[in-house]
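INPUT
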Amino acid sequence: MQTIRGFRDILPEHISLWQKVEKEAFALFESFGFREIRIPILEKTQLFARSIGETTDIVEKEMYTFPDRKGEKLTLRPEATASICRSYIQHKMYATDPVRKFYMTGPMFRRERPQKGRYRQFYQIDAEVFGIESPYIDIELIFLLNELFKRLGLTGLSAHINSLGCPECRPSFQKALMDFLGERKEKLCDNCIRRMAKNPLRILDCKVSTCQDALKGAPATIDHLCPACDDHFTIVRTTLEKQGVDFSVDKSLVRGLDYYTRTAWEIQTTSLGAQSAVAGGGRYDGLVKELGGPETPAIGFAIGFDRLVEVMEQLDREQLDIESKKLSLDLFIVALGDAALEKAYFWSCDLNRAGVRTMVDFRGKSLKSLMKRADKLKASHVLIAGENELNDNKLILRNMNTKNQTFVPIENLVPELMTIIQK
RNA sequence: GUGGGUGUAGCUCAGUUGGCAGAGCACUAGGUUGUGGUCCUGGUUGUCGCGGGUUCGACCCCCGUCACUCACCCCA
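OUTPUT
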């Protein structure tokens, strides 16, 4: 038996970075007024089809969709934004507070061909803001990502931003783009010709080199922005510059979900092979209304948790060692003989209850092998309880770093050990 | 969905024109009866991914299949 394709186990020896990222991210989000939300893993298929877009790759061929026992079509969530919008509308949150900020983490599911940095079950850290139209919230989110990555010690990342415009400016842009593409149709790859009919915006993101050549001088969304979108994007750019946040404007950045409007961005890395996006986000001002809520401006981002951890592992192997050493024990009890085992069991329970991280190995091995085990578990102290010690009513406490040994009387064992070890 | 690469011990990998299945690490037991890391000595661990074929004989050659992996695509 083994995991199904594209799914994987994250084993205890790799978990410390995940926990570290969660801890840093959540603390940062909380300080900016975000609150955690937890949403279901399963939703009605319709929710994703309507929000992400019927013609996107995600909806067309990547979702895990199946009928439940009564025939209702359900889908394992491929992303979080749609569900959070659904929740926002369902609980009429707009009615109790004009501004809501959420964050969450959890698994997402997309049935793609697995490769480096891409899994069928992958994890995202998400942040979403509802109710603010001002560009300053766009900047705040980009800053937030930047700050988080800085706190995690990441380097070599670059922010790419673009503006996709709004329903107001789309028609003029689409016309310009179609005119442009019509003239060079024969130079485009088959895929792009297919895209012309379905989603011409996506062609700008094509990586085929002949298409890239053909696209030189193509109209860009940012050259066709309506005055309101233009102002919005100008404030985003100038404020980021003032704040000293490093970024570049990427006219060809087109996100693969149809709900995006205005500001869109990606944080990219060079260290993950073809999977360069570690985080991506954007504004989706039309989505809440589209899903049946009131007209509500909204914006959010998703961090590729798996990719982020992989980048960190690559950048900092030493960090990994430090993290794993944090898992050490305060005390390992070496119990020799049945009588000692029973006593050791009770002592370890009492000590753990009192906050001293303690373990006993109940296998009844020799002193030597138990000492080896204490060493492997990186215990800072070892308490030796053999026949001699029990008879004398005092146990040997060995400091594994200094090799100093002291005797600890049994009758006052727990408080005594607490004061020695917690120094 | 389409290509390329790789499948041998728990891990990392050797394996000679086709002739007994290997190393290091890990694990385990010892090294004067009860003291860890380094050191020394011994020991355990295999459906050579799976199924066919060729051959006296296949880890090795051929066909098929599955898995992993990288890339296309798409995205986080």
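end of record. The first helix of chain A runs from residue 15 to 31.
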